[in-house]
Amino acid sequence: GQNIDQPTEMTATEGAIVQINCTYQTSGFNGLFWYQQHAGEAPTFLSYNVLDGLEEKGRFSSFLSRSKGYSYLLLKELQMKDSASYLCAAHNAGNNRKLIWGLGTSLAVNP
Amino acid sequence: EAGVAQSPRYKIIEKRQSVAFWCNPISGHATLYWYQQILGQGPKLLIQFQNNGVVDDSQLPKDRFSAERLKGVDSTLKIQPAKLEDSAVYLCASSLGRGNTEAFFGQGTRLTVV
């Protein structure tokens, strides 16, 4: 079957580091997306991992282990504006290139 | 580059009424998606178009929902008749396709059915 799991909620302190985990099960896996969604707004693209390893983009990094069906999003030097929902989505490379979405992790950054 | 345009931003209707949403994707994007996002949940794919052909509508409630993509460009999603449980944000997204699958989302239409 196809399944994707991530924690529902997380809380962290401004200036700290937080890691949001995502596990997935899907046939024909091609890659893993992370999107950020602020309340009332549309999701915006953060990263796409195809190969194993860590990819860094400023304060945000994303990691993928294809053999373990596991990814994480790492946010450093947290700011209040990072309070948002973080969605992981597994890319199925079948005929329709479907995205399997997680339910999102709601991150609250406290002062 | 202009983003994905959607209208209206907000819509309130009574149950059993009909409603239509419009989406204009980023120019040149072959793939267009309609998602339903209920508060506190991730997006649920309703329908995916590749140019003007449907490639996935497995989660579209076809007894009440319909969608079309005219000439492979803009698209409309219709609900007829609406139910209370259709209250959600309807997101349109587009991507280049052809192996590049980063999806760009519109602002969404927030539908409230009362």
Quick overview:
The complex is a heterodimer of chains A (111) and B (114). Chain A has 111 residues and is mainly beta. Chain A has strands at 3-5, 9-13, 18-25, 29-37, 44-49, 53-57, 60-65, 70-75, 84-92, 99-101, 105-110.
What are the defining features of this structure?
heterodimer, A: 111 residues, mainly beta, six-stranded mixed sheet, five-stranded antiparallel sheet, B: 114 residues, four-stranded antiparallel sheet
Describe the structure.
The complex is a heterodimer of chains A (111) and B (114). Chain A is an all-beta fold and 111 residues long. Helices cover 0% and strands 59% of the residues of chain A. Chain A contains no helices and 11 strands. In chain A, the strands form 2 sheets. In chain A, strands 2, 4, 5, 9, 10 and 11 form a 6-stranded mixed sheet that branches. Chain A starts with a strand and ends with a strand. The model of chain A has no long low-confidence stretch (mean pLDDT 92). In chain B, strands 2, 4, 5, 6, 9, 10 and 11 form a 7-stranded mixed sheet that branches. Chain B is globular, with a radius of gyration of 13 Å. By secondary structure, chain B is mostly beta strands. Chain A binds chain B through residues 31, 33, 41-45, 48, 87, 89, 91, 95-99, 101-104, 106, and chain B through 31, 40-45, 48, 50, 55-56, 91, 97, 101-108.
Question: How are the SSEs ordered, and which strands pair?
Answer:
The complex is a heterodimer of chains A (111) and B (114).
Chain A: E1 3-5, E2 9-13, E3 18-25, E4 29-37, E5 44-49, E6 53-57, E7 60-65, E8 70-75, E9 84-92, E10 99-101, E11 105-110
Parallel strand pairs in A: 2-11
Antiparallel strand pairs in A: 1-3, 3-8, 4-5, 4-9, 6-7, 7-8, 9-10, 9-11
Chain B: E1 5-7, E2 10-13, E3 19-24, E4 31-37, E5 44-50, E6 53-56, E7 65-69, E8 75-79, E9 88-95, E10 104-105, E11 109-113
